[in-house]
Amino acid sequence: MKEKWEKLTPNELTEIEYDVALNNSTEPPFQNKYWDEHREGIYVDILSGEPLFASTNKYNSGCGWPSFTKPIEKVVVKEKLDLSHNMHRTEVRTKNSNIHLGHVFTDGPIEEGGLRYCINSASLRFIPLEEMEDKGYQDYIKYVK
C-alpha cells in the first residue's frame, strides 16, 4: 500500500511547531493544542505524517501536555539521554524524521506499563477517527477501536 499521508516541510510549520520539533524546545503546559483533546483518533508526526500515538493510549496525567502510555509501535520512536537544564531525562524523538517529541518518564499508570510519554502538541497532528480512512490511515483504525 502506498501511503498518502500529508507531509509538511519545515517552512510550513508555525514558529512554535518549528521551535519545538526542530530546535528541541518545549511549549507551555495547558496552552497547547492537544493536552485536552478527547476525540478518538491518532497523533502523527507533524512533518512526515507517520502514526505515533493512539487516543486509546492517551490519558490525563495532569502535566498539561498530551500524555500517552505507549507509542502505536515501539519502533516509531527512539529514546535519547537528555541532560539539559541540569536534569536527567529521556528524550523521545521520531525514528524516521528525527524530530523532538518530548520526554518519557516512569511515573505513568502502573497497570499500563508505568510509562508516561509526555509529548509536545507542536510536534504532532491529530487525525480524528472519522478522517483516518480518507487520509490514508485505514490500517491504524485498529489501534483506535
Automatic annotation (TrEMBL):
<dbReference type="InterPro" id="IPR002579">
    <property type="entry name" value="Met_Sox_Rdtase_MsrB_dom"/>
</dbReference>
<dbReference type="GO" id="GO:0030091">
    <property type="term" value="P:protein repair"/>
</dbReference>
<dbReference type="Pfam" id="PF01641">
    <property type="entry name" value="SelR"/>
</dbReference>
<dbReference type="InterPro" id="IPR028427">
    <property type="entry name" value="Met_Sox_Rdtase_MsrB"/>
</dbReference>
<protein>
    <recommendedName>
        <fullName>Peptide methionine sulfoxide reductase MsrB</fullName>
        <ecNumber>1.8.4.12</ecNumber>
    </recommendedName>
</protein>
<feature type="active site" description="Nucleophile">
    <location>
        <position position="118"/>
    </location>
</feature>
<dbReference type="InterPro" id="IPR011057">
    <property type="entry name" value="Mss4-like_sf"/>
</dbReference>
<feature type="domain" description="MsrB">
    <location>
        <begin position="6"/>
        <end position="129"/>
    </location>
</feature>
<keyword id="KW-0560">Oxidoreductase</keyword>
<dbReference type="GO" id="GO:0033743">
    <property type="term" value="F:peptide-methionine (R)-S-oxide reductase activity"/>
</dbReference>
<comment type="similarity">
    <text>Belongs to the MsrB Met sulfoxide reductase family.</text>
</comment>
<dbReference type="GO" id="GO:0005737">
    <property type="term" value="C:cytoplasm"/>
</dbReference>
<dbReference type="GO" id="GO:0006979">
    <property type="term" value="P:response to oxidative stress"/>
</dbReference>
